[in-house]
Amino acid sequence: MTAATATAQAELTYREAVREAIRDAMRRDERVFLMGEDVGPYGGAFGVSLGLLEEFGADRIRDTPLSESAFVGAGIGAAMGGMRPIVEIMTVNFSLLALDQILNNAATLLHMSGGQFGAPLVIRMTTGGGRQLAAQHSHSLEGWYAHIPGLRILAPATVADARGMLWPALRCPDPVLIFEHGSLYNATGSPAGHDSADITTAAIRRTGSDVTIVAYGGTLGTALNAADRLAEQSISADVIDLRVLRPLDDATIMESVRRTHRAVVVDEGWRSGSLSAEIAARITEQAFYDLDAPVGRVCSAEVPMPYAAHLEQAALPQPGAVVDAVRAVAA
Amino acid sequence: MKSEFRMPSLGADMDHGTLVEWLVHPGQQVRRGDVVAVVDTAKANVEVECFTSGVVDQLLVEPGVRVPVGAVLATITTGGPEPEPAPAAPRPAPATPATGAVPSPVTSPLVRRLADAAHVDLGTVHGTGPGGRVTHADVRAAASETAPTSAAVAAVRIRSSPHARKLAQELGVPLTGIAGSGPGGAVRAADVTAAAAAFAAAPARAGTADRTMAIRAQIATSMARAKREIPHYYLTETLDLEAALRRLREHNRTVPVAERILPAALLLKAAAMAVATVPDLNGFHTGTAFHRSAAVHLGVAISLREGGLVAPAIHDADKLTVPDLMAALKDLVARTRAGRLRAAELADPTITVSSLGEQGVDTIHGVIYPPQVALVGFGTIRDRPCAVAGLLGVHPTVTASLAADHRVTDGISGARYLLAVERLLSHPEKLL
User: Fold this and answer.
1) Per residue in B260-299, is it b (16+ CB within 10 Å) or e — as a string?
2) CB within 8 A of B74, min separation 6: which ones?
3) CB-based contact A292 B165, cutoff 8 Å
4) What is the pLDDT of residue B344?
5) The pLDDT value given to residue B95
6) What is the spatial distance between Cα B105 and Cα B86, in angstroms, rounded to a whole number?
7) Spans in chain A with pLDDT lower than 50
8) Cross-chain CB nearest to A289 (options B162, B182, B190)
């Protein structure tokens, strides 16, 4: 292990890890640049790009007008032209203004050009609730993007993944969307010296034998917390961090479910038509005869996310609800 | 038309039975209620009655073969002596209220068709229509009453998780008869492994040692289910038997030795009659709802010589006289220990009495036999010091206990029941 990686092992916040990943990518590849609203002098809505303008200059850290469709479209064009753009969208809610660019252009070009050219860009955005930002800044719509073929959807839940996923994402020939849960930016952890993380498989964050809890991004902490409480009740839980929401790593999920025979999916998205629905359906398709109980789900209440703190907490998946769901399938 | 004679369910915990012998042969005329076969359950050899009348057509199962509940054992042609074809147009009901019995059941074509479909012998159906006519409601009631056949067939389809089914197949355990611990009684993997352990300990076939183990496994399953599903509450009360036993002694002096009555019969009679005070202790809890039974079929826990326990029923115990009850008890004990019980006796006790009196214990805190909802226990009758009219006296007393299902009744009802038992025993003239 080199001296450089040894220093990288110091504890970082998730925010610093993302910044470190961008800085690292920009140093490695001069085609990489960052664009988005307020990413320059202001340092990004969540402080991720703080200091990067000073380091790399205005050519590579580009403030954009308040028009998601325009700057995502520009990013796609730049990628097609040979650049490796990192496009930052403040929250997933605003990304819907660029949905036409993402779905109709970025996701389809490689296919429609018969494999002649694609749009290898990375779009980062914030997702999720829990920070009292009300309905227009708090939703978890990554499941919608995970619906779209042609995209790779990542959801780093740990500091190590936040640090390590960007570089392989930039080297991926497909457009990659990275969803950063807003409540994670202040989380600390070790980037573990990784400057490249696996962006194809799910990770097992805790091993157990009685139930599989599937989570990702902001719900991983909820799931691990629930698993701790369940351990006190002698229920041992396997906790899977999906990490990659598309394409889903079926093998890891099924291997776990075949061991535990029970599954609960924790998803901050709304239940109806959600990623949790997809996972439950796949478990039923592929591991039905290994199930000892119906697949359980813990999702957000199907309401626009409330502003009031107690209502917001009531609407979001909480560890207690996960414990209850697990007990319903495994007790 | 042909009717199917199926392996009946001889109790909530029975899933398979072995045909021991046929007591009929093809071509033989049988009537509803005739004993046609002997079946070996895990607990005893049971004489099985026929539910239809007709001519035995084919015997489909050889003696010695073990088959699941609901399997067809024989076919019976029911065309035989049809009830007299009804007059094309039944006489209009008399203008005055029907005064007497209509000679034979007068039925409509619809009722006959229903009866055929449900394998109900119209001759045995009590008519509630005008002039005692059998209505289609009567047929339906009779069909549901006498259809352990169809009930057993329905029971074969059981709720279970896919993993439990796979595991059951791998372990060679039949899913039927496993008490499920999942939602709605669904069988889960843990239930299968538990049952498999019990099965491994108890190979299903013959031999006294095997039977003892099989009985143990059955008891394990149903008692584990009872303790898991039934929220028991327990009440005890010490009863003064001075008056009752004096009455019994007087009675016994007047009858030949063979007809003497044991105190146990008196206790059983009181336990059965007291049900009238709290009818909610008498019936079945199916897991979703309680179904009160109109009749009191008193289960009597009888220990077997080779170990284990069965609790067959004395039918309508509340209506039997004490001498009749005593006779029934003697007969039942003898037949239980000989392993010759009737199907209905095993299948339908509505409340059970357990008496460990001979063993010298004072109190029993019983485990309810599912799907029943109450178990009455009697300890040893002993002379004990007790307060009588402000003085200390020595009276024969017994501790009566009640274990009851809290889903159906509360302590207050249970207390009323024990009080009713006490009242009956302190006024034995009402009993004997």
Assistant:
1) bbebbbbbbbbbbbbbebbebbbbbbeeeeeeebebbbbb
2) B4, B5, B22, B36, B37, B56, B57, B58, B59, B60, B61
3) no
4) 67
5) 42
6) 8
7) 1-8
8) B162
CB contact under 8 A, A291 and B161: yes
pLDDT at B111 over 70: yes
- pLDDT for res A108: 96
What is the predicted pLDDT for the residue at A323?
A: 97
Distance CA A95, CA A231 (A): 39
**What ipTM is given for this predicted complex?**
0.72
Which residues 6+ apart lie within 8 Å of B379 measured at CB?
B355, B356, B357, B361, B362, B363, B364, B398, B399, B400, B401
d(CA A91, CA A79): 22
Q: E strands within A271-320?
A: 296-300
Q: For residues A25 and B249, what is the distance between their CA atoms, to the nearest angstrom?
A: 103
pLDDT digits (tens, 9 = 90+) for B178-212: 778 888 788 888 888 887 776 655 444 445 566 66
pLDDT, chain B, mean: 79
CATH of B232-430, one of 3.40.720.10, 3.30.559.10, 3.30.2390.10, 3.40.109.10: 3.30.559.10
Structure token pair of residue B57 = 């057509």
- Show me where the domains of chain B are located: 2-77, 232-430
DSSP 8-state class, residue A103: I
Helices (H), A89-197: 92-95, 99, 109-112, 142-145, 159-164, 166-171
Say which of A261, A290, A293 has its CB closest to residue B182: A293
Strand partners, B383: B396
Q: Indicate which residues of A carry an active-site annotation.
A: 68, 137
Chain B residues whose beta carbon lies within 8 Å of the beta carbon of residue A289? 162-163, 165-166
Best of A262, A292, A324 to substitute, by most chain B Cβ atoms within 10 angstroms, is A292
* Amino acid B61: pLDDT: 82
Structural class in CATH, domain B2-77: mainly beta
Interface test with B, best of A261, A284, A290 (most B CBs within 10 A): A261
* pTM above threshold 0.90: no
- d(CA B306, CA B14) in angstroms, rounded, equals 20
* Interface touch B188/A292, C-beta < 8 Å: yes
Per DSSP, B372 falls in state: B
* A interface with B, Cβ–Cβ below 8 Å: 261, 288-293
Is there a contact between B264 and B358 (Cβ–Cβ < 8 Å)?
no
Mean pLDDT of chain A: 94
Report pLDDT digits (tens) over A102-146: 999 999 999 999 999 999 999 999 999 999 999 999 999 999 999
pLDDT digits (tens, 9 = 90+) for A197-242: 889 999 999 999 999 999 999 999 999 999 999 999 999 999 999 9
Show the tokens assigned to A237: 């839980």
Q: Is A246 in a helix, a strand, or coil? A: strand
SS3 percent helix, strand, coil of chain A, rounded to 5, is 40, 20, 40
